[in-house]
Amino acid sequence: MADNLSETLKKLKITAVERTEDSLEGCLDCLLQALAQNNMETSEKIQGSGILQLFANLLTPQSSCTAKVANIIAEVAKNEFMRIPCVDAGLISPLVQLLNSKDQEVLLQTGRALGNVCYDSQSSKEQFASTNIAEELVKLFKKQIEHDKREMIFEVLAPLAENDAIKLQLVEAGLVECLLEIVQQKVDSDKEDDIAELKTASDLMVLLLLGDESMQKLFEGGKGNVFQKVLCWIPSNNHQLQLAGALAIANFARNDGNCIHMVDNGIVEKLMDLLDRHVEDGNVTVQHAALSALRNLAIPVVNKAKMLSAGVTEAVLKFLKSEMPPVQFKLLGTLRMLIDAQAEAAEQLGKNVKLVERLVEWCEAKDHAGVMGESNRLLSALIRHSKSKDVIKTIVQSGGIKHLVTMATSEHVIMQNEALVALALIAALELGTAEKDLESAKLVQILHRLLADERSAPEIKYNSMVLICALMGSESLHKEVQDLAFLDVVSKLRNHENKSVAQQASLTEQRLTVES
């Protein structure tokens, strides 16, 4: 087979130049056979032979061999190492031109070839970005009426559109207008093909918005035709459009300026209405998308109060009963964003026993690390932003203390820190109420470990010492502090390179010495 292959490649070089169709076809059949038997080895030989460069000339609409050449390209491009050589050999432009073909087999193989060359390969996509493929594909797309051909172009567009530079080129070539038109034509149809095309078009639209530049270009300061059209998808009766609309808003909401503009122009009410329509039917993807959008919109400080007074917390709390981790995760994130530095809202939520009990339950969701982490962070945030005794009491009664203590040992410094600050507030405001829980969660031992561990971040050491001082007000915890040699650990930190840590170590040492 190997000798045969070398022979075939030699022969192909000659016939490709002379263009003798019959012998050419025989050579191509041999190659396809060799690829079917051992794709990788054959691909390596094809690359070594320099034959790829000749394929560009064979990809002509008139030639009877075109489908076979495209098929060979599709086969070799299944190998990651062949994708860039295909681009370098100048095969993209002739392949794109072939998408105009009337021949079904040529179309099929061309679509496969383009799809495989740009599949999952960052570098080949980057090389695509320097061709005019975006423009060519969009031009071609505008001409197509048949569903199958459009579907084929979609299949090439989707992987390409993952590259940010190409996203922008597709937007500039007018793809978005085509997609909006498809949506408008197909929205009321119940034909299977139309439903599929509507989904593909709206998904692709959302994908284009994932690029920062392409997204900003389409937002046009909130005046953009595209942005306005997408807004109309949210109240539609079509679930796929509601989903795409909410995801699009979540993507537009990736910078403060856009978020502020959208909130001022009534997007929150639209999203709340959408959520309302899906409380009972449990359409998880739509719930998740609408909550993602609300969470992003709640990031800028000026939006928080506006969203709170619009009733977003009440709308979101309706999903507390959801058993779907993706919905739980976004619900928690949205509430955490909303109460950031909003004392009144944090207090109101922190006294909501149903919410706090659900949070404590989710803090044990071992299978869903995201939900578990967000629940812990929200518990801590309720205390940190409300600084309220009632909130602390509610959390103690619901069994939340042990989770905050565990959170202090998290692998993420930001979570450790949030836990320690919340625990220091508990110790300062309601030590008597929380004392037993802090003891049984072994807080003092954990703080000793954090202070003795050289890898602990400076802010962790600082907050651990603040917390130790606050715990001295409890007789039983004070005794635990005395039993563990805290003085040794703390006095070592007096020479810490971080000024705040060194200062806090001196203060803590005095406190420990006075009260020993």
From TrEMBL:
It comes from Chrysochloris asiatica (Cape golden mole). This is Rap1 GTPase-GDP dissociation stimulator 1 isoform X6. It is found in: Cytoplasm, Cytosol; Endoplasmic reticulum; Mitochondrion. GO terms for molecular function: guanyl-nucleotide exchange factor activity. The keyword Ribonucleoprotein does not apply. Its main location: cytoplasm. PROSITE patterns: ARM_REPEAT (PS50176). The gene is RAP1GDS1. Keywords: Cytoplasm, Endoplasmic reticulum, Mitochondrion. GO terms for cellular component: cytosol; endoplasmic reticulum; mitochondrion. PANTHER family: RAP1 GTPASE-GDP DISSOCIATION STIMULATOR 1. It comes from the Eukaryota. ARM repeats lie at residues 90-125, 266-298.
